[in-house]
Structure formats: structure tokens, C-alpha cells
Structure prediction request, 468 residues.
Amino acid sequence: MITSRYHGVIRLHFVLKLAGGLMIFWGLVWALHFLVYGEELLPSNYHYISLLIPFAAFLEMAIRDKSSRSLCGVSRAQIWNITQREILFALVAIFGVIVMSKDPALSRVFLATFMLLYSSWIAWMNQVGHRILQRRLFSSRSRHANTIVVAPPSKIERENVLQMTGNLPGAELLGYVPYGGAAAIDIPSFPFLGDFDNIRQICRSYHAKLVVALGLDNNPSLVKSLQEICDSQGMRLIWVEDQKERFGGNIDSHQSGSHTYLTNWQEALEDPLNRGIKRAFDVFASGLVTVLVLPILCAGVWILHRLFSPGPLFYTQQRTGRDGEIFEMLKFRSMKVNDMPGVQAKVNDPRIFKGGDFLRKSSLDEMPQFFNVLKGEMSIVGPRPHFIDHDEKFAEIVKSYPVRQFAKPGITGLAQVKGCRGETDTERKVRQRVRFDHFYLRHWSPLLDLCIIFDTVVQTIFPPKSAR
Prediction:
């Protein structure tokens, strides 16, 4: 999670700055061509000059110190120095080529105006844009502050905790919880939230999404306890530890200065670019299905309802989405209108009307959820959302069950194509589903999504026995 967020923010911020710079360049070229100079300023003369903008940006990023590539936790003075470097590289590249080529077709007025606008864009993106970007990408929707620090009071006094957490994309401090027996210290800008014995309740009452633990040297058992608490509440845990070898499993690590940040969850979808790729595919595919397929299906299901079970075309259910948020999930109604909406379908369920069993086994009843995908509440592929009361029940069986809510729920998922469909009536079935959902979180890739979609299409045509 740390590596994906850290490097993802660097890449996305860089891409946005570069895209904005090129838009300014060509927008200014065409504006001056049409409004001022006409044939005296031809856009075709500026193609090779426009290539110097990404060249200068890539060169500056390549030789910049690695610790300064991310603007997380960097002071305003350091950000201003980086901004000056970026502007200087672009200035030297563009005007250096002009001086050497002595091309009379290039407008000096245009280039001077562009450098002024480009410099303003880079300065704004570095000073303000990256902060907005982080808030939009990682902060909780209900509140900006989402991070609780767990540390001995002595550690908080010695370390610059605000800067340390500032190096973590998406971390915005609520306050701290001390442990180790020492009395809490009074820090005006860093509030004391409560005693460590009440850490579970504190996290729940403040709706925390991230716990950062410091000073856990020689105490790996405490890390395990905190991990269990975080997993059971759908939170992420990051701890600072110099020796990664003390902890087994798929540990994700990130080195920032003299500190090594560790977390137990590797999540490719915490990279903003990966998330953007997945969202772009969702919008494109669901848009096609909504326009080309759903109207025909709606007509067919409406006729089926008129013949065997008159009533509403759609059925809405409250389900749990990403980060535990509740949303209304759409389905084609496949049961008779009844007063047991939260009961899972069973073999030969009398509530299913004639023809409804075909909708369910072929998964056609799930097709309206492409509307949920367009709204951003779901993804085409992801952990299947369950009833709210089922979430509570399953979380008692598998303590790390809420972790599956790190990703958007899906119309289909890895667990479903691997045979975990139908009624989840045993603990073994619950554990199997959660195991596949966690695997998906750790190993997401566009190729994995395409494979799951392909398997889903095959199972739609040839429904497995577990389909209900």
C-alpha cells in the first residue's frame, strides 16, 4: 500500500503537470494563430519545440534526488527550490534550442508568454495542486483527518511526527494514543485521544482509516495485535521499523530518509494511475452495456414479469461498498414480491418465480449494476458486496473480513469465478470467499480483471451448479 501510494502520487502528479504544460503550449499557439498573428505564426513550426517540454521534465525528474521526488512532507521552501529547478530546465531547453537554431519563424512573444504561464502552472501544481490531489485520492469522504498515531510519549517528543506522517500520502492526523505506561504529553497541535487500552473504541469513534505506529522496536507481538484490530475494522496499519526481516509474509516497505515504513497489505489499486486505468475501463465497458444491452434486457425481463410475476422491474438492496459506505445496489427482480429481502436464496427457493431462476443462474439479474458502476459505487470486477447484516455475521467468522472493503465491490469477482457463488451457509464458504477477495486485493492487474471477465462470460453461458 505504501509503495503504491507513494510512487503512484509521484507519477500522477508528474503526468498532470506535463499534460497541463502541453495544453498551455498548444492552447497559446492556436490562440495567437487565430486571434493575433494568422499566417505569421504557424502551429506546424512549433512541433519540435513542444517536444522539449516533456524532455526537460523527464530530465529534471531523472537527476533529482529520490528523496525529493515526492512532495509529501516537504517544506514550502524545498518545494519552491524544486519548482525553480523545473522552470529552469524548461527555460534552458527551449531558449537553448532557439539560440542554436536561430529559427526566425518562432515568435519570441509567444515563448515569453508561454514561459510565464508555464511557470505559474508548475508553481501552483507544486504548492497547491499536489495537496488537493492527495486529499481527493486518499482522504476519507466523511472527514479529512483520518490517521491515529500510536507511540510512546518519549518517541513523540523526540521524533517530528508531523513530518513523518506527512511523508505518507493520504495521512492526515487526528491525534495520538500513547502506550508504554508513560503519562501523556500535552502537544497543542497534536491532541491526545485516549488510553491505549481503548484503542479499538477510539479508532471506531473517530472513524479512523489509518493507524501509524512508532517505537515498536523489539515488540513484534504488539504489531500483530494492532494488525488484528485494524483488519477487524477495515483500517490500514503502517509501522516504523528498521528491520523488515522480523516480520514474515507479504510485507510492503518504503524507505523515507532514516525511517522504514512497513505495512502488511500490498495493494496495487492504491496507485492512482492503476485506479484510473480501472475506472476508465469501467466507464467505457459499462457505458457500452448500458446503451446497447440493457434496453433489450429491460424489455425482455419486463415481459417475463408480466407473464409470471407482475411487479417492479428493478429491485434495490442496501449493500456495503468501499470503505464501508452504504449504497443502493440495483438488480432485476427475480423473486416474487416478499417481505424477506435479506434472506439468501436457497435450492428450490419458493420465492423465485418461473423464469427468475434462469435470470439468477445466468447472472442476468445482476446486469442493472452497470448503472452502479457508472455512478462510481461499484466496479465491474471486485469483491462481491453483501447484505449489511451478512457483513457483520461474516466478520465474526473471519476477523480480517472488512479488509475486502479496501476496494470497490464488483459485479463479478475472483471468488465468484472460482466457484464461490450461491448461498454462503457455512464457515468454510465464508473463509474461501474472503481468501479469494484478499488475493485479488494483493495481486490486482488489468490482465487479472480481463481473465475474471472472460470466465464470467463463460459461466453466464454455461452456469455452474453453485449458481442460484
Observations:
- The longest helix spans residues 2-37.
- Residues 2-138 form one domain.
- The radius of gyration is 27 Å.
